[in-house]
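new request in #modeling-help
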Amino acid sequence: MVYSTPHLKAHTMTEKPPPPKKTWSWRSQAFRGLVYQIIAFAVIASGLWWLASNTLYNMQVRGIQSGFDFLWGPAGFDIGESLYPFDSSQPYWQAFLIGLTNTLRVAIIGIILTTILGTLLGVGRFSRNALVRGLCYAYVELFRNVPVLLQLLMWYLLFTEALPMAVDAWTLGPLFLSKGGLSFPIPIWATGHLWGFFGLIAGCFVAWGYRRWAIRKFEATGQLRSMFWIPLLLTIVAGVLGWLAGGAPAELNSPVKGEFAIENGGSLTPEFLAVLIGLTAYTAAFVAEVVRSGIQSVSRGQGEAAAALGLSQGHSMKLVQLPQALRVIIPPMTNQFLNLTKNSSLAVAIGYPDVVSIANTALNQTGRAVECIAIVMLVYLTTSLATSLLMNWYNSRSAIKER
Amino acid sequence: MTAQTFQPIAAREAPVKTEGLVAWIRINLFSDVPTSLMTLLVGGILLYTVPQFLSWALFRASWLPDYDACRVEGVGACWGVVTEKYRFILFGRYPFEEQWRPLLATALMLALLAASCMRAFWKPWLVILWVVVLGVFFTLMYGNTLGLSKVETDRWGGLPLTILLASLSMVMAFPIAMVVALGRRSNLPAIRTFCTIYVELIRGVPLISVLFMASFMFPLFMPQGVSIDVLIRVLVGITLFAAAYMAEVIRGGLQAIPKGQLEAAASLGLSYWQTQRKIVLPQALAMVVPSIMNNFIGLFKDTSLVTIVSLYELTGALSLALNSDANWRPFKIEGYLFITMIYFFFCFSMSRYSIWVEKQVNKGKAS
């Protein structure tokens, strides 16, 4: 049997007739699609125009000024807590900036704590110990079925009512916990710390180099070296060396119990603690479910196959099961992180000066509703997009590489 | 040759028991050393805290609506705050003598929600039932007809408001979500772009900013002289918010429909809308019922946010009830625990229901 290959066929075949001329018709799908799109565009555009013209007219009638020029005027209000000093004569844009840093501060610390707590709870659901299993289940069901706002209010109430006054603060070593918040020692700034910081950065580079070398060695010889502990150790050692080279400054600014308040040291306000703990406790319940379903999604056979190949328990977990579970875990985990960031806006209910709270105050003082709400929305949109871009990048790294 | 005598070997030991309480405890609590240590640690903590909590919440608690009794040394939880204030917490500022109306309306609404969860009611006339019950709900709550006195919406509050906000916005969000989900998968670029922008914009901002918008900016959007009730404005805000999230859920269902279904529909000569209505949506929606249920739970919890824009639903009503009363204000935590229990009851039963539905949906597939 001889099959003709395509290029042979091309020689033997006669010229193809040209494709039939496209006949245009009123009923063609392309035309109807175009009409639908034009109609949709017209409807939406006119709706927006209507809203905008109403808004402009209303603002004119009510004498509401518009524009972002108010951002450069003095704010006229104080902010309870800020990363850098702020007083009421500073302009609005700095107030907004402080709100933004407060939001980011609670969101970033919250995300880290949530990941740890949520993972522990999610793994705990598979414990061989029935008590641990039951406790994790009870935690998840309890915390995710109660509104986060209610939880925040309760934490705040606990912090402001149940804790002792500053004079009889609960003391744990150098830590003080009272109605005034949590006080803790902070190192006093010295140039030696800068040296330590440089050491850490140098350590990171060394660790990165080591990892590359170790991976190349592994691919060439099959010898597996520690890819996590040794780089970590290298980084820490480099940091400590830098710190020692800088003269090892170890002076601490420790809090002391004063007459009315805890003085000196670093401190976290009860508002911050309530928001942080409330958001962490709430989101961790969801993260636990995400982790649980991720672990469940890896079929049992994978672990058995790894064992049959002679991989140890730890290697089987690290090289076979975890990478597959992560693929399922990461997308919903991103959603949870975004939820946490967005839920941090509820801080306004308990008076933590996050960006929504600042915008609310600014709105009440200047009456520029459109501008203030636009700023809030912009802030959250940017954070959301940035987080999801970052997580998408990480996700594409851990996704299946199909060939 | 010696005669071989029969020598029975020692009997094997009985196998370790794997059933019964003792065996369960051994397997689940004391299987090896780390597990046993963990059991002792966790068990110790539980034995220390749980009796203390129970003693505070039940045995030493004061149940009478008497705030002096609560201030006695050694008294635990003061549930008197609930016995005293439960009508204010449940119905907000609704006129006291008229509170049978929200009670009846809430009962009707709950019955409707329960009925909507049952398969026997999944018929076209359920829609009519919804319209009727919502009509009765508003008539009962607002009054002004049938000899009922008029009660303005700013006096509505408590549980009826929570349930109304959650269920009505869910019902209204559903058709929007369906259209947007189809739009996001449309071949027409302009429509796809609009739907994508809408969904991503809403999902990127917190609900609270949408509520602020509904409460502060919405009046500016309307033509001069038109003023819309704050309840309606907030309802619109929550609906638009919920629709974006639900659209994503429905889109997930649409994506799971195999392409062959669409091709088969096309080869049968069905139009776009016929295909969607008869082939795609029934399959997709059945698949996403559990996720929609989860959305609804989220929405139910999110209604607590309207208290920030001064609508006194359950959470707001509690603050309103206690902040104005110096005698009871110190016992706010008991009040919070009370509404926590209400929220937990609703959300937990809904999540159980969603698990049940999921099993029902998967029944056909397991084979």
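bot summary: Confidence is low (pLDDT under 50) at residues 8-12 of chain A.
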